[in-house]
Structures are given as structure tokens and as C-alpha cells.
Specification:
The chain is an alpha/beta fold and 346 residues long. The chain folds into two domains: 198 residues, D-Maltodextrin-Binding Protein, domain 2 (3-Layer(aba) Sandwich); 140 residues, D-Maltodextrin-Binding Protein, domain 2 (3-Layer(aba) Sandwich). It has 14 helices and ten strands. The strands form two sheets. Strands 1, 2, 3, 4, 7, 8, 9 and 10 form an eight-stranded mixed β-sheet that branches. A two-stranded parallel ribbon has the order 5-6. Strand 1, helix 3 and strand 2 form a beta-alpha-beta unit. Helix 3 packs across helix 10 and helix 6 crosses helix 7. The radius of gyration is 21 Å and the shape is globular.
Length: 346
Amino acid sequence: MNRRTLLTSALTLAAMRAFPGISYAQARPLVFATFTGSWEEAHKAILVPAYRKATNNAGIVLDPMLSVDQIAKVTAARNNPPIDVQLHDPGPGLIAIAQGLVEPYPVDRSAYYKDLLPVAQEPMGPAAFFQVVGLTYNPETIKTPPTSWADLWNPAYKGKVGITNLASTLGTGFLVEIARMYGGSEANVDPGFTALAKLKPSLSAVASNPGALASLFQQGQIDISPGNYNAIQILKAQGVPVEWVAPKEGAIAFRTTMHITKNSPNPELAFKLIEAALSPEVQTALMQEPYLVTPTNTKVKMSGAVAKDLAPDADTMNKKFKFQDWAKINEQRAAWIARFNREMAG
């Protein structure tokens, strides 16, 4: 048993002793499957205190894991799921919905749902945050900032380019945007694969996920790559020479959605956690350094680095960001991953 499992069990048993008539499932504290790294840190620092304030200090345990692991755990225990609130990138979020693993969000009871950007209004689980992908580069080795995705193919950067594989949302989203540049779309990424074949001689590394890709800048293995805005800002705060810029084609934006797990013993507490995440107060706090999480609530006044680097207001953000059709992407993504692994191996 890991530390979080022990903590969950201890809190549950304490509640059962205090209220002998309730079951183990009913007594269990809320379990929120956040993401690892900076996501867990941000949620622990900002979201958890807001949730506790809204629930008179109700119990909560953060259990960080990838979306694929969340889906696997809930699927294996549908009648007594070990997770109450799931956090997903767009592709896995649609899978969780399609497999019946989540409940409809009680939109009619929500104080904040109506204030979200339309693209964030998912009735099966609203988007509380956006993840934004653009170009990342080392300003000490690349003196002229890149301006387009096409700059990755610049011969001057041969041997210093990094990307992620297609198992990551970043990698798949990048492939789709490259396909679009050359006449393709979510339904036709052949032009993107053709472009990647031409990029292959310039690659220094193909990372497994955005965090691993960001670490390659620390190690000096790459000088330019597609990059997640939040991951890069964390590197900058650590003194790593790295900058982020939105390409002229538009930065890619991914919805990060929160879902109430079907058959959760804590549906009301799950609702209150998500409501806290949607609130302008929490989103404004998360937008500040060091977390720099992009808000989805139109009532949030954009400020600081997020306003400077991404968009000064919600309306501009809605126009500038490139949101992709992940329902269409999911139809062929498994085949794309296999093709990428076959063609880009080595």
C-alpha cells in the first residue's frame, strides 16, 4: 500500500468509528485523481483549501496519475470506483464519457458553468483549465525567436530538435497541426507524417511525455521543440534558459476537464470540488506564478505572464487558440500511434 492509500484508509476508518451506521464507501474521503508534478502542487496549494472551505473541511485525498490509469482503475471497479473526481485531457475525457465512467455534470445547479468559455462547457464534465502548446526554445543558442511551426525544420537546428511520441496529447496535437499546415486535418494526417519523416534527421530525441521533453532542455540535449506553456514556465523559474512563444499559425489549446465518477459514494463532494475549480477566485489564484494555469472562466481578469504571453482577455483567447476535434482524432489515434512508432523508430 502506498502513502495515499494508507491515508485514505485511515480517514475512512476514522469516519466509520465516528458514525458506526455508515459503510466503508460512504465514509471514504473524496478521492481526486489529479495529474502529477506541477498539477498536484497547484491543486494542493489552491484548489484543496477552497474545497475545504466550501465543505466545512471535508476530507480529500489527491491521487495523481495519468488519464489512462484513471480510466483503467474505474473500469476495473465500476460499482465501487476508487476515484470520485477524474481529470482528463480531451482524448481520454471523451473515452471516459463513451465508456459510461462518468456522470452528467449538474449544470442547472452550477454557479459558474454559464460563465465558462463555450468550448469549456462540456455537460459531462466542464473544462476547468486549458493547456496551451506553442514553440519552446533556448534563447542562448537560438538568438532569433522562432515564429512558426515550420521553423522546427530549419537546417540550423539539425540534431537539436525534440518532440514527444503520439501517446501524449502534446504529440498527437502537434501532428494534427502539422498536417493542417500542409492541407490535412484531423481526418487526414498523412501530410503530417510526411513532414515528420523530413524532420527525423534533425531530431535529437522523441520524449515519452511533455515533462520528459522539458527535462531535455535542462540536460542541453535539445534547443527547440513544441512545448507546454506551464511546463516551460516551471523550467524558467528554476533558472533553465528557455522561452515559449505562440507560433503565427496559432497556439494549440487542450481542454482539461473534470468529471464526477459514476457510482461515486461522494457525488455531492465531487460536485463541490469541481465548482471550486470553476470559480473565478480559484482560477485567478492558479493563473498567478508559479503555476500559471490558463483559466476557462470568462469572469477571470487576465493578468501577469498569462495575459502577456497568451491573451489579454477571454475573448482574445477564444479567437487565438486552436481547439482540435478530439472526437475525430480518437477515431484513428491508435493507428496513428502504431504508425508513428513504426516509422519514427530509431
